[in-house]
Amino acid sequence: MGSQLVQTLRQGVWASLTGGWYHDPDQNTFNNSCHLYLWMFLLMLPLSLHLALPPTTMALSIYCTSVTIFFITIKMVNYRLHVMFDKGDVVPPSSLSDVIQGAENKSNASDSCLAAKLSADSAALDCRDLEYNEADLEHPSPQLTTADNSSSGIDVHSHPDENDPPDLNVDADGFLRIPSMFRKYGPGGRTHVRGLSMDSGKDAVLIADRSQNKQTTMTSSKSDLEAKEGQIPNESNFVEFVSLLESINSTRGASGIENPPEEVTNEEDRDSIDESSETSTQEKPSRKLYYKLKLFPGKWVNILYDRLALLALLDRNQDVVENIAVVFLAFLVAFLGFILLNHGCFKDIWVFQFCVVIASCQYSLLKVRKAFSASFHSPLDVFQGHNQIVAYSRAAYFCIFCGLIWILEQMLRRKDLPVSTVYGITIVLADALKFLRDILVGITYCFPITFLVGLFPQINTFMIYLLEQIDIHFFGGTAATGLHSAVYSIFRSLTALSLLYGFCFGALKEPWDEQHTPALFSGFCGLLVVLSYHLSGQSSDPTVLMSLIKSKLMPTLVDSEEEGEDSEDIKDPLPEKLMNSVKEILLSDLVVCSIAYILTFAITSSTVFLSLKVVLYALAGTVGFVTHYLVPQLRKHHPWLWISHPVLKSNEYSQFEPRDDAQLMWFERLYVGLLCFEKYVVYPAIILSALTNDGFSLSHRKNCDVLLMTVAGMKLLRASFCNPSFQFVTLIFTIVFFEFDCSRASETFLLDFFIMSIVFHKLSDLLHKLHFIMVYIAPWQIAWGSAFHAFAQPFAVPHSAMLLLQTFVTTLFYTPLSPFLGTFIPPGCDDNNLNSIFYEYLTRSLQHSLCGDLMLGRWGNYSSGDCFILASDYLNAFVHLIEIGNGLVTFQLRGLEFRGTYCQQREVEAITEGVEEDDACCCCEPGHLPHVLSCNAAFNLRWLAWEVTTTKYLLEGYSISENNAATMLQVYDLRKLLITYYLKSIIYYLIHSLKLQTWIKDSSITEALVSYTKWHHIERDPAVFSVKIDEDYVHCLQGVTRASFCNVYLEWIQYCANKMEEPVDCDEDSPLVTLCYALSVLGRRSLGTASHNMSNSLESFLYGFNTLFKGDFRIATKDEWVFTDMDLLQKVVAPGVRMSLKLHQDHFTCLEETEEPAILYEAISNYKTSLVICHESDPAWRKAVLSSRDTLLTLRHMVDDGTDEYKIIMLYKRHLSFKVIKINKECVRGLWAGQQQELVFLRNRNPERGSIQNSKQALRNMINSSCDQPLGYPMYVSPLTTSYMGTHKQLRSIWGGPLSLDSIRTWLFSKWVRKDNLTSCNSGVNMEDVDCAGGSSSLSHNPNSITSQSLSLYQARPNRTSHANRQHAAGLVHQIFSTGDAHVCSTNAIYDKFKGMVHPSY
Predict the structure, then answer these.
(1) Ranges of Acidic residues compositional bias (predicted)?
(2) Which of the residues 84, 1055, 1248, 1310 has the least number of beta carbons within 10 Å of its own beta carbon?
(3) Quick one: angle between helices 613-625 and 683-698, nearest 10?
(4) What is the structure's pLDDT at 252?
(5) Taking the model in full, what pTM does it have?
């Protein structure tokens, strides 16, 4: 315990304070000394220059130049050495004496030389034993030496340029032949050398016999290659791998060291090896190689070093760009740090502290302790192992803060800083800048402590967060899903802002009258609405848009990529579906934006907004109150947490298992109508009114006000288009506050509304945080474990004050309650869990319907970042809304375990249990009023961090039914029935195969099946055939014959053959029967082999059948004829195994019917097309689920808690009913951040820690288990998926689908054709009887009314007929009615005329 604490303090705390430097006792003296001198140099250089030289540009130049040259030298040498190791240019030795002499020279020159020395006798013996063969002479081996890990040597030569590495011999099996001098002697005169297979890349051991010079292979572990950092061994660096593996083998302890032969090893060598085995890894003897480092053409040096020692000394930068970035960052740290020292920002002892910060930032660019950097520098990196960005984060943050301090210093030097008044508050700009500078300086001082506790995330995460918040609060953006997404979002917002600012500045450049709006300003307003609408409907992730553009501009390239991906098996329909949705949106925006621009230009050109302010405000408040408060409350499971059931109930509320799609209700239509009216009419009118009314005053302002107006207008419009759920509250508060409370402090309405939208966003986060804290720490919510809890509760009051301060700070910066960690967690899940496919299909279903359901109000009010739980009988999914746009929603689904832990089950029970039957009120049970909750139930619901919003939410998914296979096959007769169905299925697939004639006529198959043509041939394998399970078993013969097989299966063979279009000979002596008989024997023998020849045992039988079901066939020697064509196994026997399982399952429901050949044949034919039967690990299973197949069947082997079971799993696609639970999003963020702090920072590895125990008021276990690994253990984590409203059928039926030029042309053409062709109805029929325009009829005494009714029935469903049929039908109507004798046209006659033109699907 003490050593672990010291190690944590040394490698964790101290390394974080210094930027990565600490004394590592496991490293040798050379490495530790280099690290110490590096850090001291980086610390003393700026300190000494600052104290010795005056603060001039010369001192700055000297320091920056020194640091730049220093880093360039180190990085260049490091990069060249790694390139040298990668290429593997090994110097061939001239003789063995040179090798020994070189090792002695390097040992004398180094302070860590090897104690063991080779004696002259042993060297002479080595020279006699290690003789080169001819291949070794042709390709000389690299020079070897025995030295310490830190030893290095340089042998300078002047030789011709040798660029080609030495070729290595490869034997017939694809293994490299290692020269004899690489081999390590073992007992018995054998040598052991580690190598790699060139054809498979697997680790292997090459064992060479000294006497016979033979090489064989045996399997070994890959763990010794972990230090190679993902390199792929090849011929060029193979020698280095051998050396490294020898070094690793020699460091595994005394038990792992192989003693050399007695004639080679003396007592001194043996003692030295025993001593070295007790030393550290870095100080153990290992074989070294000379590598050729070319300096100039014709000049190169020999380097005695290896990659492991170099990596222990300095970190590696992979490419040239990364090295340039490191050098630039080091220069920037030196420049900004020293320029602040010159400006006098730091005094006295703080100069030394600032130099420590500079040294830590620069040292982190050279060496970062990988094992602890993830825990103490940026805890987020622990999920992905060591992340190279960690090395840049500290230096990048230093540059950001010092750059801001430098800018503030330059601004403070100005004497004419203004004094401004904003909202009635006087702001002295000089004092404000000085206060901000002091804060930044203080944060810079605290860099070591800040990075110790992990207050700063990775620099890329910080940039994502910063750009996302700027885009959301200033430009009305939605969210960012990554760094590319954040850069793309801010770039498009700035582009739109630049364009709008130009128009606005041109319109307001000169004053103008309120009664006459300039045309340029009207154009600006129209362009503002158009750009805001377009940007609000586009996702922040440009991946799908780029794919669409690529498919249009470079279709040939896209087609070639799809062909290369083998699209037949793995093509995913989702990308094409997303591209089609984006294409629809772009085409719709083209039409909508054109119309919106014309309307906006026309309206703003008039004076309509001058007298409509009050009306618009009242309309926005009323519509917002009804849409976002009244209707959602009435639809909740417990409205206002007082009523026991919803007031506005869905049609499925009272149904037990709904089978159809959710029915569209009248209040959902009302909700969508009010929402669209609010988004597209009310708020754009309010913002345009504010722009118009403030235009006159803003035309007299400065450019800054014009920019503010443009930013505010774009932000408010985009926010209103995306999600106006809380806009009406912000609007009402803005009007009340600035009109009545602080009317004198008001600026313009547009700016007031803009500021209040940001303030209300922060207040909403604050309320969520306070609600979570109060719910989580409420005394009556705590499970008191002892009297100590009641005693300790009052002492937590002082901590509550700190928690409150922390809440305000985290709200200001939009971070989780736990300040130690960042907010981004990379995705991860349990890929080995077969049940994850159900959550993947659930994600696809949500992608199809989530956006539409949200717009219909089925999930209640929502906003970006909200979290929901979908709970059903066995599926519990966590849904996180990432981005809310105009007609799109980006979300992520996390699937929880089917059979959760005890804590998860308790929380699921808390969700599913009802509170309607609770009659308690305080300590008594007086009951409650009808349709109203009791006092206790209402009180408890208010102290939960979650709320049930919907109880019957329908989503398409798969219901699972499972049967125990052991129960269905317990009896021998049932196993015999399964074998019978197995053989009949093989016969069916054989006869229906397209290759049947080829197989029957194949001479090789015919020759192999000669024995099966003889009637007296008997199959007598007692391990395969048995009277208990084989229907055709002959007891007296103790086996199966052709006669017995025909007696049972000939009728089935002939029935299947007669069903074929081409006639096939199927008599008893036909080749077809012979092939069927042979395949039946092969199928049963394969089952017996897979069952380990113990088919009589139920467990063995199930194991063997499951093996065949997976497609694993072990073919006996006598059945190798089947390899003539593998389709015999893949297309005949394997499907037969799977089909037999379904037929056997149907046997329990219809016993008599399956015995009839006709019924059995029809069943197999139907199942072949409608049912997917395969193993869950088969790619066809996933493809079938994602393709939304109706029914699937599989056999699953389940091993859980010591139970070994085989389950027959049946999947049926149907509508699943879920409960939708909305969770406080700050509860989720706080618990996830707390888990990171506990697991990563505090390193609590207790699997039963208290932080994951059940907490019903916060659903703590379900939330923490849904977090990504290693914090949680989700079964499935989906990628970020975008749902579009255009894919929702019911919502599409309301608004008619996206507008486009084609849809408008089609609609107009259909209306014009219908009106033009049906006007002729007046000539032969009464208009009172036929309503040609509407296509309906009224039944009267006129005989023609019946005719018109038949016509109306046809016209009521025009979508089912083609356009040509519609025209022909209209002409036929004209022809019939224009004859003047309408009485002749009876109903049957007209029906006969029309039935030939109706679409077949009619």
Answers:
(1) 260-277
(2) 1248
(3) 150
(4) 43
(5) 0.77
